[in-house]
Structure to design on (299 residues):
């Protein structure tokens, strides 16, 4: 790999979403870090490589995931195969544009994605940007989390920019305290944090976005951009502090992947040379288009 490459790390799943008719469901492939990789591939120039790091099984649906990523131009060379476990499944239910999820992921092959340190190190070697999330951490056993963070820290020392979305999902964790501790450990080895304020307020007790920024900078991260569901977006860190206000609003059809697509839009704009505020505005435009349609991946 080269410096013009992004490696997204996490769990891809079979997605069932409404097809617009009662009792009719549409099958897709999605997952938070996969969604971001997909939107990055659609926004970055072709000389940028977008790759996905995960673990799947040997069965038909795992192969569907591999085939889908290959067809979409996302490199699958570092996706491992598990002879015992399979790809996970989730379904999206919608009410007034807001989504809820039902998961079948306890035996997901992706829970072992960090079990081979050599494969992980090889995938990260020379990567320009490594992207992961709190969901990536949440699906892993404790040893796997430690191995992943150690590998990312090594890559960061070698010049890789590490980008982290806390994406707080308490159902994946033994306790809220365990989740918060792991997220702040990840922040300590990350250059850019892309949290959502509602989650940060709920689980860390942050009074306002500035408190979220200060806490993550205090952990050791370099820059923080706080998503706020269409409200003013605050940022702070090594590249200065400020807010972007007056963002367009829309009534959502489906908020699935709103944050994932924002993250992709922000990174793509920064790679293209936009400053922080300009990248935030472009990222918001991407997420507005995404929430206007059903499903995680909107063409």
């Amino acid at each position: 790999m080269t410096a013009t490459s992004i490696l997204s790390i996490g769990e891809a799943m079979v997605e069932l979403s409404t097809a617009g008719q009662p009792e009719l469901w549409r099958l897709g492939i999605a997952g938070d870090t996969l969604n971001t990789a997909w939107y990055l591939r659609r926004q970055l120039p072709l000389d940028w490589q977008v790759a996905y790091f995960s673990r799947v099984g040997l069965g038909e649906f795992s192969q569907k995931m591999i085939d889908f990523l290959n067809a979409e131009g996302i490199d699958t060379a570092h996706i491992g195969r598990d002879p015992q476990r399979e790809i996970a499944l989730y379904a999206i239910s919608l009410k007034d544009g807001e989504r809820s999820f039902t998961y079948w992921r306890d035996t997901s092959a992706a829970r072992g994605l960090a079990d081979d340190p050599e494969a992980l190190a090889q995938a990260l070697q020379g990567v320009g940007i490594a992207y992961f999330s709190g969901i990536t951490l949440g699906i892993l056993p404790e040893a796997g989390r430690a191995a992943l963070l150690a590998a990312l820290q090594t890559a960061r020392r070698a010049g890789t920019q590490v980008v982290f979305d806390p994406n707080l999902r308490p159902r994946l964790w033994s306790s809220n305290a365990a989740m918060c501790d792991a997220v702040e450990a990840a922040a300590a080895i990350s250059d850019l944090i892309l949290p959502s304020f509602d989650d940060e307020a709920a689980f860390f007790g942050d009074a306002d976005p500035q408190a979220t920024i200060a806490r993550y900078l205090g952990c050791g991260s370099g820059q923080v951009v706080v998503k706020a569901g269409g409200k003013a977006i605050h940022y702070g860190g090594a590249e200065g502090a400020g807010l972007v206000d007056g963002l367009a609003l829309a009534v959502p059809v489906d908020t699935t992947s709103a944050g994932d697509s924002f993250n992709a839009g922000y990174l793509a704009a920064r790679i293209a040379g936009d400053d922080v505020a300009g990248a935030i505005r472009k990222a918001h435009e991407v997420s507005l288009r995404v929430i206007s349609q059903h499903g995680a991946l909107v063409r």
Summary: Residues 248 and 285 are 8 Å apart (CA to CA). The chain has a mean pLDDT of 92. The two ends are 27 Å apart (CA to CA).
